[in-house]
Automatic annotation (TrEMBL):
This is Inositol-tetrakisphosphate 1-kinase. GO terms for cellular component: cytoplasm. Mg(2+) 2 binds at D285, N287. It comes from Malus domestica (Apple). It catalyses: 1D-myo-inositol 3,4,5,6-tetrakisphosphate + ATP = 1D-myo-inositol 1,3,4,5,6-pentakisphosphate + ADP + H(+).
Length: 359
């Protein structure tokens, strides 16, 4: 009998397609019975395929309608992940709300999110009452995280003078010294991988007091190194070797908790370690379908994940994948759970002035 093959359609923006759909991934998936096929977004999704599975990172109502139509016409098809679940990550407030809802006990380490407020208009920006409890320096982040260059443009604000340049809606989040290193935790179904990346340097007491401009803008700090990123080489070059990794089991528990709460299979989150405590971790960002190609061995991890989904669907029906009802793929049983922790990131932020921070 001929080997059963599976078709996975992908709908990605050109830049994402280029970084993610590499020959090495396509070849490995093909050798294991999975054909990765580009979805033509100029045509109706439901008229293409057939696809056992749809993988996507696109924004907007038109695309949501395409997915809805696909669901109706392909009750056996699996959508990774549900657009309704992904949308939570398009707003920097709802994104982190889920962290506050997690209940995870760990012997010595704690986690949370930095103090933050959302500002919708200039009036509130200058209203000292709205600021109660929040201390300078703060990072101003665009409220919307929609993948645009603008949504990554941030500013470190040292004092009230810096506020003049900000354009709401923004989130103001306390800047927390963390030794200039950020931990990026990549999640793919049941797989969790934590890596170290360069971050913003700590701010000294003198800098806090002495900044002339009151503000410094920056964008995608941890992505500044665009050379090959095998971790050993990157860690040496960026002088990250000495930074201790967070406890693996702790990070895995947080990853699992987030995954279950958000009902997402493909995401990463950025974690910093509060330099004042050393055992306090803060989650500052969660991204849907991040740059997996930067993760060592991404081809194997992603292919294993695809195989798990299609095999589960084949064996027990689409409900068993959990993805039909927008649940996440279960982390036990058939889903291989590899956890490793070996140790990134960053247009018009809403600032009129530009001083690029060099790290
Ligand atoms: O392109 P890459 O590889 O830098 O991936 C970006 C991610 O970098 P990371 O994997 O966390 O280092 C990046 O993560 P950060 O927000 O920089 O932490 C985002 O996920 C970005 O997607 P979007 O612009 O928010 O939609 C991701 O961009 P897209 O590839 O989705 O456009
Ligand atoms: N509260 C914070 N304290 C210290 N550094 C931060 C904080 N928030 C963000 N950063 C730094 O700014 C970078 C970009 O912020 P992030 O929220 O991850 O936005 P993006 O979605 O563009 O990656 C982070 O990678 C980190 O280096
Ligand atoms: Mg980030
Ligand atoms: Mg982000």
């Amino acid at each position: 009998m001929a080997e059963r093959r599976f078709g996975i359609g992908y709908a990605l923006a050109p830049k994402k397609q280029q970084s993610f759909i590499q020959e090495s991934l396509v070849d490995l998936a093909r050798s294991r019975g999975i054909d990765l096929v580009r979805i033509d977004t100029e045509r109706s999704l439901a008229d293409q395929g057939p696809f056992d599975c749809v993988l996507h990172k696109l924004y907007g109502d038109d695309w949501k309608r395409e997915l809805a139509e696909f669901r109706v016409k392909n009750p056996d098809g699996v959508i990774i992940d549900a657009p309704e679940a992904i949308e939570r990550l398009h707003n920097r407030i709802s994104m982190l709300q889920v962290v506050s809802e997690l209940r995870i006990e760990h012997e010595s380490d704690t986690f949370g999110i930095p103090k933050q407020i959302v500002i919708y208009d200039k009036e509130t920006l200058f209203d000292r009452q709205a600021w109660e409890g929040l201390k300078f320096p703060v990072i101003a982040k665009p409220l919307v995280a929609d993948g645009s260059a603008k949504s990554h443009k941030m500013a470190l604000v040292f004092n009230h003078d810096g506020l003049d340049n900000l354009k709401p809606p923004i989130v103001l989040q306390e800047f927390v010294n963390h030794g200039g290193v950020i931990f990026k935790v990549y999640v793919v179904g049941g797989y969790v991988k934590c890596v170290k990346r360069k971050s913003l340097p700590d701010v000294s007491e003198e800098e806090k007091l002495g900044s002339l401009d009151g503000l410094m803008s920056f964008s995608q700090i941890s992505n500044l190194a665009n050379n090959e990123r095998t971790d050993d080489k990157y860690y040496k070059m960026m002088q990250l070797d000495d930074t201790e990794m967070p406890p693996q089991s702790f990070i895995t528990d947080i990853a699992r908790g987030l995954q279950q709460a958000m009902k997402l299979n493909l995401f990463n989150f950025d974690v910093i370690r509060d330099a004042r405590f050393g055992n306090r971790y803060l989650i500052i960002d969660i991204n849907y379908f991040p740059g997996y190609a930067k993760m060592p061995g991404y081809e194997t991890v992603l292919t294993d994940f695809f195989c798990d989904i299609v095999q589960k669907k084949e064996k027990d029906g689409v409900e068993s994948t959990g993805l039909d009802s927008y649940e996440v793929l279960s982390c036990d049983d058939e889903v291989r759970r590899i956890v490793s922790c070996d140790g990134d990131d960053g247009g018009d932020l809403n600032v009129e002035e530009e001083n690029r921070i060099q790290v």
